[in-house]
Design brief:
Layout lengths: L5 E4 L17 E5 L4 E4 L1 E2 L1 H4 L16 E2 L2 H7 L7
Antiparallel strand pairs: 1-2, 2-3, 4-5
Length: about 80
């Protein structure tokens, strides 16, 4: 596996979204290879059986949930291409 670095946050920090205690801190980061890393609540167990028939995950993937606000506030920073 190639070494990756976080190059920037996508959107605003959790603190700017009102998380003062660190317990609700979903976040999105752009990585040095152009992919994205997401910090969110692991909801694999409760959502895996509800995935559409044409969706799935491999054993090294998890279903992670972020808040709507996190994604909406990141929209400005997500590149078009």
């Amino acid at each position: 596996m190639t070494s990756l670095d976080i190059t920037r946050r996508i959107g605003v920090s959790p603190r700017q979204r009102g998380s003062l205690d660190g317990n609700t801190c979903p976040d999105i980061f752009e990585l040095s290879d152009g992919s994205f890393a997401v910090i969110g609540a692991d909801r694999t167990d409760s959502l895996e059986g509800k995935l559409p028939a044409d969706a799935g995950r491999s054993s090294d993937e998890r279903i992670v949930v972020i808040t709507r606000e996190t994604l909406i506030r990141a929209k400005f920073d997500i590149p078009d291409a």
